[in-house]
């Protein structure tokens, strides 16, 4: 509460206790109800109006800041993922991006598909884990394409992952997927 408002309220309380209130006309009289002066009403109105505008302004600023923060966060995730990919730390990259598996950003999902596929290609990865990672990579790339069909990197990594899946499903499936793979590389 502003200092001026506080002093006005305290003076009203003192006058109320004495039984003397100054009305709108400025003359003193004994009454049981409280009627503040025009200037006090105006002053309080300006204080409350200012506080209301301040509250509304801070709410809208906070709302905009939250949106900006969310968009910066996605950009930071992509930047960190690209840095880890460039450093060649595939396991750390996969671990980092796995926490964004439920993302609705195609850019994050194709990077996770790439990381899963690269982890499957490592010689120290167990054969059962390789198969699981290859299928996971295909699903992630497919989800990225469903979110953003114009993302060329998602097309590229979906085609690569589809080719890798063909290694586990046999020659007939691999040949059938060749046309699909070609179409995704031509996008």
TrEMBL record:
GO cellular component, alphabetical, reads: mitochondrion; mitotic spindle pole; spindle microtubule
Q: Where does the sequence pass through the membrane?
A: none
Q: Acetylation as a keyword?
A: no
One Pfam assignment: RMD1-3
Q: Name one GO molecular function term.
A: microtubule binding
- Keyword terms, alphabetized: Cytoplasm, Cytoskeleton, Repeat, TPR repeat
Tell me which InterPro entries the record gives: RMD1-3_a_helical_rpt, TPR-like_helical_dom_sf
> Where in the cell?
Cytoplasm, Cytoskeleton
User: Partners and quaternary state?
Assistant: Interacts with microtubules.
Q: Which family does it belong to?
A: Belongs to the RMDN family.
What protein is this chain from? Regulator of microtubule dynamics protein 1
Q: Tell me which species this is from.
A: Engystomops pustulosus (Tungara frog)
